[in-house]
Amino acid sequence: MFRGVDTVDRTTLPHMTAPVPYVFLPGTAREALHFYAGVFGCSVQLHTLGDFGRTDGPPEAIAHGVLSDGPITLYAADATGDQRALRCEGMLLSLLGTAPPDTLREWFQKLAEGGQVVDDLQGRSWGATDGQVIDRYGVQWLIGYEADETS
User: Does domain 93-146 have CATH number 3.10.180.10?
Assistant: First the structure.
């Protein structure tokens, strides 16, 4: 323990399994979350600025949205006020081995619709298959699986 640092009782803190992306989009959060729900088979929960009594943007703008009841967790909102909208450079969301290969191939194709394939899904010299795609909302994804995984 460091001198001068209070002890934290970690048993009272919520358990987190991994960081969850939260993206601010340029007025497209509603559309994007419904698109991702269709890709990943999730439900969408949306709350508008009006729902929260906020006046820093149009009342129908999304203040907080989340994918739920599916294999992917993602939060999104419309950028308002001085918030900057997503600009993805030097980072991607990884779905390596997160589902069976057939599912990962399907996700890759769906995410590519209206987006851009950066590196097609293909076998690699180290035995894995992977590829990268930037979806229509500017989010870059790395999707792949090991050669010995079955469909």
Answer: yes
